[in-house]
Structure formats: C-alpha cells, structure tokens
Amino acid sequence: MTLMVPEKEWWTTAELAESGLPDVPNTRQGVDQLVDRHGWRTHPEHCRRRSGRGGGWEYSWRLLPSRAQRKLLAAVAAPKAAKPKQDRAEAWAWYEGLPDSVKLKAVDRLLIIQKVEALEPAIGRDLAVREVARVSGQGARTVWGWLALVEGVRPDDRLPALAPRHRMAASKTPRGKDCDPEFFDRLKSDFLRVEAPSFSTSYRRALRVAVAEGLAVLPERTMRRRLDATC
C-alpha cells in the first residue's frame, strides 16, 4: 500500500516563512518561535542538520500544524487517490485471513491513532502524539510510525494498513473463530437506534467497548455483511 507524502518533505525555517502554508508564521522569527514552542528539535526522526552552505536545521512536514499538512497532501491527493479497486479488496482479504490476535493489535493501534486525532485540534499533532504515547505506554516514534501507515488511507480501510506484517500474521485464522455474541448484539443495537448512526460509527463505538472488555471481534466489513444477513 503506497503512502501519500508531499513532494517536499523537509523544510528550513526560511522556506516555511515563505511557504504561505496555513497556521505557519510568515517570518523566520515567527517560525523559530513555533519550533521552540512545540519542541521540534526533541524529535530527532523529524529534524536534521542541513548539509551544505549555511548549515542550520531542516524539519519534516510531519511537525507542521494540521492545516498545513493537509494543504501539502492536497497537492498530491488527486494522483494518489486513483488506486485500483482490487488493492482495497486484496488488503481486506489479507486482513480477514489474519489470526484474531494480530487483528486486535491493529485495533489497538487504530484506537491510539483516534485518540491522537481527538486531541490534535486542541493541542496540535506533536503534543497529541507525545501525550497519547505516554498514557498508552508506547514510544512517540512508534505512534508516529502508525500515523504514517494510515496517511492517505480511507478511515474505513485503516485496519489492514495497521496490521503487523510478519510471518505469523500471514497465517490463516483457524476455522470456527468468531466474534463474541455480546459484541454483535452491542453493534446491532447501536446501529438500529432511532438516531440512525452510520455503520462505521456504530462499529467504532462497539469496538472500543469490546477491546476494553477483551471481547473477540471481527472486521467492520465482515460485521456489516453479517448484520445485513440478519436484518
């Protein structure tokens, strides 16, 4: 699965000041203050010494404010979005063949990403990643890596992108594996409420509870097919 990244990934403070990107100061002094305020240099994976004449620092686009990141990605979204439909089908077919233990790892990663996205509007992505990483017991670099895995991926296609890809993950799910009835009942009752939430919304709500209670779950598409068959 190809990840979407901007054409220009590394920026100097002077380039950022002239970029016109939203929420990025238009003076070098202002950008320097942004760098210091958010501790960009505390993330060695996203900053580096600039080689060549003049020296200085370069910063990864991943440290930029959310709106600036979205504008950079929008410039490359059109060509990247044209993926063959079979790519999605193959990804989900691969995911649905994974052991439940591997699927739950993908679910755990997705929930952490959703926590980052919930905090991001209030405190910015960098601080959101650090806070969620601290609370969840993960390394900030690990969380950044998971965020990179879902860049440009549709929200309802994130689980295959987040599933670990090692030899054990490639094995098939043993026959007879199923979700807990309580998970299905909770999902069904939420989806059939008079408020008529979307299936994805109901699935995410049921998924959070299931993960917290240690219930066995199945992928969203599988649950949708099962629910359609019973309604």
TrEMBL record:
<protein>
    <submittedName>
        <fullName>Mu DNA-binding domain-containing protein</fullName>
    </submittedName>
</protein>
<dbReference type="InterPro" id="IPR036388">
    <property type="entry name" value="WH-like_DNA-bd_sf"/>
</dbReference>
<keyword id="KW-0238">DNA-binding</keyword>
<dbReference type="InterPro" id="IPR015126">
    <property type="entry name" value="Mu_I-gamma"/>
</dbReference>
<dbReference type="InterPro" id="IPR009061">
    <property type="entry name" value="DNA-bd_dom_put_sf"/>
</dbReference>
<feature type="domain" description="HTH Mu-type">
    <location>
        <begin position="9"/>
        <end position="80"/>
    </location>
</feature>
<dbReference type="Pfam" id="PF09039">
    <property type="entry name" value="HTH_Tnp_Mu_2"/>
</dbReference>
<dbReference type="Pfam" id="PF02316">
    <property type="entry name" value="HTH_Tnp_Mu_1"/>
</dbReference>
<dbReference type="GO" id="GO:0003677">
    <property type="term" value="F:DNA binding"/>
</dbReference>
<dbReference type="InterPro" id="IPR009057">
    <property type="entry name" value="Homeodomain-like_sf"/>
</dbReference>
<dbReference type="InterPro" id="IPR003314">
    <property type="entry name" value="Mu-type_HTH"/>
</dbReference>
